[in-house]
Design brief:
This protein has a domain of 249 residues: Rossmann fold. By secondary structure, the chain is of the alpha+beta class. The two termini are 47 Å apart. It is built from twelve helices and 35 strands.
Length: 676
């Protein structure tokens, strides 16, 4: 972490495009979005530079008085900058910086109008021998002065304190204190400081200016998380069931308190093994209730449970087709105002009429930006930071003043794409080999023929994830280069209920990969794809799917790109050893014949299409050794394979230079393999 420097000002000036002028200067709504521009003629390198650049705004948060916005923006390489935007003057200046080696800033929140708490994340092997993820918290003034680290001091050299904790209550914003969970480790006296026996996760009321704490909840070695009620009180604690040696069994017991009591009462038990039980995700102190996710008819539904001792449970929202994905929280107290879910497009079911009216009115003002969310609000909830986007607009930030009824532009996620025609994303379904209809998204080039195109199947990662309607920089890059792109939500994807998830994409790999291959066959059968120019591209599990699809049907795809892929299920199981969830993770992947049958690295002889792989050397999700093994196996079998390893970067490749290089290489590889 570095303090302000003249060089930092230059970095931030490059990193962010802002609308100049005071916040109140604009009135009413912004003009309607203009018609899609004619496709700009750009070469491959320029396209890679435009689409590979990181978002100009990584995170944004509004001060309690609604007069300042703290923005986390990208700098060179993996670095990030905290940029302070004064809404009264329109002036923006950098106030802090992280160079990405190994820590990078990911977001900030406001303890008060003058005090920020920012989160840093990084991957390091210092003192451990292997790569581990680390999270740190630091507080600073709004101008970057007086930085204070907020983690409990590391006192045991042989233990790696991976996380500083997290804020569970930002309070009213009138003081510099927050309610914070922190990890404690037992320590010996070193002659300078007294030792301590505290061990586990506790909760402190922490002064972000001085670092002084008042212990609210004693450290508990079994505690996994705490939920505050937004009124300054801890109301729910999770307790892990652990084996000898501290490994979790995947069974979590939740306990709660009624208002005004210090006694814990049973709330629920949740099994991560069977996905059974109620899982509390938030507490609304004003309503004196907890919100939980629980399976109903095989899908996650949202329930409200009274915390008055009665445990009265009411169904808040359930969808007959898909899982409830989460909740919408607003204000300093984190009031719960809606439930999120995604069918063919993302939705929010609002049960707060005021916020329903707000989103509806904003939707009328921005009809071409239908994905609207409240990012943050002032303490009095009269000023709101809004983000709005669509499939063809990466996203824009606005400031909405409820008293003035004004909507002011703040910044864009990807202003460099202005004037570049993007492909419209269309929700479709196609028939799998067994007759099941598979949901997917199809994005076509914005101009030219809709038949006989070069095409790409782009399966998502996870596998416990799903694609949603909206802007996707990777898909849109390939669309810009003239490819039709289909993104299948194959069976094994999350969000569609337990039956669709099946056993998961590893144990049920035959079904998942079959659905992925059927997406390619559908493109050909519909005449969209030229069968001689059909490729597959994937990241993480999507990279695994791209490789394994060629084991199943070597003739279907003519080129394969796999980014940070799983290549050997046995190796993946081995990577999970030594963690508190080792048994859970290994059981998730499974054991038996599918470890061989479902591992592309075990079947190099079946490959016909050329393969290009990319991997970060600091990947803690999938070890780079898997790509190295895949490349070695393919080359040993006389197949065409190339592996590009990027040093000092993790699974997500959050570096504009790296992403630009990856896209440039990918475009050239596909052009050669598909004879474009």
């Amino acid at each position: 972490m570095k303090s302000r420097t003249p060089a930092l000002a230059r970095v931030a000036a490059m990193a962010l495009t802002l609308i100049a002028g005071p916040a109140g200067a604009s009135s009413a709504s912004p003009p309607a979005a203009s018609p899609s521009p004619e496709p700009a003629r750009i070469d491959a390198r320029e396209a890679a530079s435009l689409f590979g650049a990181r978002e100009r705004i990584i995170d944004a948060s509004l001060s309690p008085d609604g007069t300042k916005i703290a923005l986390v923006v990208p700098g060179p390489k993996q670095s990030t900058v905290v940029q302070m935007l004064d809404l009264k003057t329109g002036a923006a200046k950098p106030v802090n910086f992280a160079n990405g080696d190994p820590m990078t800033l990911t977001g900030c929140g406001w303890a008060s109008d003058t005090r920020l708490v920012c989160t840093l994340y990084g991957v390091s092997n210092q003192n451990t021998g292997g790569w581990l993820a680390y999270q740190r918290l630091i507080a600073m003034d709004a101008d970057g002065a007086n930085p204070v680290p907020l983690g409990a001091r590391e006192k045991v050299q042989n233990w790696a304190q991976q996380s500083d904790g997290y804020v569970i209550d930002w309070r009213d914003g009138k003081s510099d204190t927050v309610l914070l969970t922190r990890n404690y480790l037992p320590s010996r006296s070193d002659g300078m400081r007294a030792g301590g026996m505290a061990n586990g996760l506790g909760v402190d009321l922490l002064d972000t200016r001085t670092g002084k704490v008042a212990h609210v909840e004693s450290a508990n070695a079994r505690a996994g998380a705490y939920l505050g009620d937004g009124l300054g009180t801890v109301r729910i604690m999770s307790l892990d069931s652990v084996r000898m040696g501290g490994e979790t069994r995947g069974i979590t017991e939740f306990v709660y308190r009624v208002a005004g009591s210090r006694d814990w009462r049973p709330f629920s038990t949740y099994s991560a093994v069977s996905n059974d039980g109620a899982y509390p995700i938030a507490v609304d102190g004003t309503a004196n209730a907890a919100y939980t996710l629980k399976k109903t008819n095989g899908r996650d539904a949202l329930y409200r449970v009274a915390l008055d001792g009665s445990m009265k449970e009411d169904l808040v929202y359930a969808d007959p087709q898909v899982d409830v994905g989460g909740i919408i929280r607003v204000g300093r107290r984190g009031r719960i105002v809606g439930a999120t879910y995604s069918t063919d497009v993302p939705h929010t079911a609002y049960f707060d009429t005021d916020y329903q009216k707000l989103i509806t009115s904003l939707g009328r003002a921005m009809p071409k930006l239908p994905l609207i969310r409240v990012v943050d609000s002032s303490a009095d909830e009269q000023v709101h930071l809004i983000h709005a986007s669509s499939d063809t607009d990466p996203g824009r930030y606005f400031l909405y003043d409820a008293k003035r009824k004004s909507l002011t532009p703040v910044g864009q996620d990807r202003p460099e794409l202005s004037g570049i025609a993007l492909g419209t994303v269309r929700s479709i379904t196609y028939k799998a080999a067994d007759g099941t209809m598979i949901p997917a998204y199809l994005t076509m080039p914005p101009a030219g023929s809709a038949k006989g195109l070069p095409a790409i199947v782009l399966p998502h990662g996870g596998p416990a994830a799903r694609d949603e309607w909206g802007f996707d920089w990777l898909a849109q890059f390939f669309v810009n280069r003239g490819y039709a792109v289909i993104q299948p939500n194959y069976r094994g994807s999350a969000g569609f209920g337990q039956d669709w998830f099946q056993e998961n994409g590893f144990k049920s790999w035959k079904t998942a990969i079959g659905d992925v291959n059927d997406a390619g066959r559908w493109l050909v059968s519909e005449g969209i794809a030229d069968p001689a120019r059909l490729a597959i591209v994937g990241w993480s599990y999507g990279g695994y799917a791209a490789l394994q699809a060629n084991v199943v049907d070597p003739m279907l795809f003519k080129a394969v790109i796999a980014i940070a892929p799983v290549t050997d299920l046995g190796m993946l199981r081995g990577e999970k050893v030594g963690f508190t969830n080792t048994t859970l993770a290994r059981n998730y992947i499974g054991d038996g014949p599918h470890l061989i049958e479902g591992s592309p690295a075990r079947h190099p002889a079946k490959f016909i299409a050329p393969v290009l792989m990319f991997h970060g050397a600091k990947d803690i999700n999938v070890d780079v050794a898997e790509s190295r093994m895949m490349d070695k196996q393919l080359r040993s079998a006389g197949k065409r394979s190339e592996l590009v390893v990027y040093p000092a970067i993790d699974h997500q490749l959050r570096d504009s230079d790296v992403r630009v290089d990856m896209l440039t290489r990918a475009d050239a590889f596909l052009a050669a393999a598909l004879k474009r």
